[in-house]
Amino acid sequence: MAGFGDYTGYNRPYGLDPNRETNDLYDTRYQQIYGYHTPLTEEYQGPPLVMDDVPEEESNTYVTTAISVASLITENLLSHPFIVLRRQCQVHNSLKNYHIVPYTLLPVVVRLHRRQDFTTLWKGIGSTCIVKGLNLAVEDVISKGTGWPKEIGRCGSVLQFLQHLTLKCISIAIVTPFYSASLVETVQSDIASDKPAILDVFREGFVRILEWGTPSKGRMLPIWAIVLPTAALGITKYFAHMLLRKITVKVLRFQQRHRHELSDSYNISHTKNGQNPLIEDMNLKANIFAFITMEIIFYPVETIIHRLHIQGTRTIIDNLDTGTSVTPILTGYEGFMDCYTTTIAKEGIGGLYKGFGALVLQLAAHLAIIKLTTLVVSEMSNLLKPASTPNSEDSAHTQQKYLFN
User: Fold this and answer.
1) Is 164 within 8 Å of 150 (Cβ atoms)?
2) Which of 288, 290, 158 is nearest to 149 (CA)?
């Protein structure tokens, strides 16, 4: 048998019979996958380094990173106006227009901006960020003090997983009084209330903690009656999100194995640190899908929790029936189940979904920003890519089908 260096015509992969007539087909496919040509005079030394794929994989990594950052910013900052709208609808027990569909909110928002200033839908943004940062800080302190894993990826046993869930539950319970104070700031009307200072969320939160038993304000519920359902909602939502995300990743991987055009890139696509950008892509898709699903599923429970938080705080909110007036929140719920039964009896099932149209707008804006980020980063990476890249057409095709295309 002739050596590999004695072949003429095409450069054949190792172990391929040179006498078979199908060599041309195998050679063409092999060169398409690995994108290289071995000199005819060189002896074969094993699979080559895929140098031409490095720019493409780096650009894919940039796309994934950019989308992760855009998703984080959107979830924590750009979605705040929609969160204000949905919370105002959720706590307004006498709201006649439930705003379950998005288009009913648009004229109301226009009237709010005409009567008030542009910042009317950005109220409470400072306290919301403070509460999220406080939650991370509490988790870090508990993790360092107890040795419990703060991240799910560090759980190597069932015991560590239970410790991780306990850490999450405790942190939610500790932050609940401050979350309650932040909720008041996001729903109260600017024209009927004084604008709070940046650190008022801490003062109001500590006041709720000190009034652990029967509070001094009218119908306000004791904080322990709010902590239990809030922590239960938070840990259930977190566990369901984590479970759905894991299932979604497995489904995406199963689908990817059965796609011939993706299976090749999956086998050979590796970044410099050894990670597969397609795996990162699937994780990102699964995380976004789980986030959207959890927001929809737990929306009715969130409505009840928010009504319990706001009760007895003497909060005056914008009337989203008209967008030109204000209305006080006057409720007398005795607990979670009483709030649920009263809402169903007086407002129907739709009462649990008040403001759902704002959630639809929020999720639509979230996906639109991710899509826009994908297109912009993909186009920039294609423009910056060297023109001499042999597989530039394949790279462009990969970018077109990468994320949310």
Assistant:
1) yes
2) 158
Pick from 93-97, 143-147, 257-261: least confident: 257-261
Q: What is the pLDDT of residue 263?
A: 55
Rounded mean pLDDT of 156-160? 90
Q: How far is CA 287 from CA 185, 238, 242, 290, in A?
A: 29, 12, 8, 5
C-alpha span between 319 and 327 (Å, rounded): 6
The conformation of residue 156, written as its DSSP 8-state character, comes to: -
What is the torsional sign of CA 140, 142, 146, 152? negative
Q: Alpha-carbon distance 21 to 24, whole Å?
A: 7
Position 233 pLDDT exceeds 90: yes
The conformation of residue 75, written as its DSSP 8-state character, comes to I
Structure-block tokens of residue 334:
């005795």
Hey, what are 112's tokens?
């709010």
CA gap 217, 176 in Å, rounded: 18
CA angle, 186 then 239 then 229, to 5° = 50
Q: Kindly provide the b/e burial profile for residues 93-121, where b requires at least 16 CB atoms within 10 angstroms of the residue's own CB.
A: bebeebbbebeebeebbeebeeebeeebb
How far, in Å, are 218, 329, 337 from residue 312 at the CA level? Answer: 6, 8, 18
What's the pTM?
0.76
Q: What is the pLDDT of residues 3-30, one digit of tens each?
A: 444 434 434 444 444 444 444 444 444 4
Q: What is the helix (H) or strand (E) element at residue 327, kind and residue range?
A: strand 326-328
* CA–CA gap between residue 325 and residue 48 (Å, rounded): 71
Region of poorest pLDDT, from 61-70, 290-299, 341-350: 61-70
The per-residue pLDDT for range 316-328, each reduced to its tens digit, is 999 999 888 899 9
Which neighbouring-strand residues pair with 317? 188, 327
Q: C-alpha distances in angstroms, 193 versus 201, 277, 329, 350?
A: 15, 50, 13, 29
The pLDDT score that the predictor gives to residue 402 is 44
**Spatial distance between the Cα atoms of 192 and 116, rounded to a whole number of angstroms:** 11
Torsion of CA 137, 142, 143, 144, to 10 degrees: 90
Q: Please list the residues that pair with 316 across neighbouring strands.
A: 328
**317 φ/ψ angles, rounded to the nearest 5 degrees:** -115, 165
Q: Which two tokens stand for residue 347?
A: 């407002």
Query: Hey, what's the torsion of the CAs at 77, 82, 87, 92, to 10 degrees?
Result: 150
Name the DSSP letter for residue 326: E
Residue labelled with tokens 């796609």: 259
